[in-house]
Amino acid sequence: MNTRPLISALAITKNEAQVLEGFLKQLDFADEIIIVDSFSTDGTQEIVRQHPTAQLIERPFKNFSDQKNFAIEQAKHPWIVFFDPDEEITLSLKEEILQKVAQPEAVAYRVKRVLYFMGKRLKYSGFQNDYVIRLFQKAHCRYDGSLVHETIKAQGKVATFKEVLPHHTYRDFDQYTAKLHQYSKLKAVMMFQKDKRARWIHFIVRPWYRFWHQYIIRLGILDGKEGFVLAYLNAFTVFKRYIHLWLLYRKIE
């Protein structure tokens, strides 16, 4: 008889139809699946509604921590897995999740993400040590309130999985740059809330530093053309962050 604690699988979505069906299949080990969607228009909601065990909740998107903490509150079960739809829950990782839930030694578990960008696995570019919490106890964990690049704050021990988590962040160029655009706007709002201002030097020095730090210091050069493209895009995102911040003070959209 299976007596392990029950698991709630959570995800937030906005136009994830391209990957969502496969993602939901990977969550077949969960006892409930809750998808909090911010009014997708690409068929995402229809995919969720057609899934036999998934529940759809529509909610406006404010920021990542707010949306994810709302999802956590909807979970019925003590253990939560919270993956992004572009992450691949491998069979071996799934088995390790079930083992940890059956015999827990921590309140949360982090996993190392392996980045795939433009069809290539990037081994450097600053992602050598990309660890994220993806399994945790509802009673002891919440997201930290950051508008973007949010992280779980755990009240208790955090352990690490042996398995890794493939992260297929890139689908097409427009989708990827749209994601970076969203991140840059939210980071600008965070800076605005802290009364930080955009100086002319920020538009030059900060993007330049981001590129060379990722491409040279964090060895993105060893990832070939893909490493160069990623470093360039991230540097441009930093530039856009300060544009957004400057516009916030001028009250211009």
Key features of this structure:
two-stranded antiparallel ribbon, alpha/beta, single chain, 23% strand, eight-stranded mixed beta sheet, 253 residues
Our count of helices gives: 7
| Low-confidence spans | none
N-to-C SSE string, H for helix and E for strand: EHEHEHEHEEEEEEHHH
Cα-to-Cα separation, first versus last residue? 58 Å
Give the beta-strand count: 10
Give an account of the 3D structure:
The strands form two sheets. Strands 1, 2, 3, 4, 5, 6, 7 and 10 form an eight-stranded mixed beta sheet that branches. This protein is about 40% helix and about 25% strand. It is of the alpha/beta class and about 250 residues long. Helix 1 (about 15-25) packs parallel to helix 2 (about 45-50), helix 5 (about 175-195) packs across helix 7 (about 225-250) and helix 6 (about 200-215) runs antiparallel to helix 7 (about 225-250). The model has no long low-confidence stretch (mean pLDDT about 95). It contains seven helices and ten strands. The chain is globular and about 60 Å long.
Topology:
Blueprint: E1 7-13, H1 17-26, E2 32-37, H2 44-50, E3 54-58, H3 64-74, E4 79-82, H4 91-102, E5 108-117, E6 120-121, E7 131-137, E8 141-143, E9 152-154, E10 158-168, H5 173-193, H6 200-217, H7 224-250
Parallel strand pairs: 1-2, 1-4, 2-3, 5-10
Antiparallel strand pairs: 4-7, 5-6, 5-7, 8-9
Helix pairs in contact: 1-2, 5-7, 6-7
Give a brief outline of the structure.
By secondary structure, the protein is α/β, with parallel strands linked by helices. It contains seven helices and ten strands. It has helices spanning 17-26, 44-50, 64-74, 91-102, 173-193, 200-217, 224-250; strands spanning 7-13, 32-37, 54-58, 79-82, 108-117, 120-121, 131-137, 141-143, 152-154, 158-168.
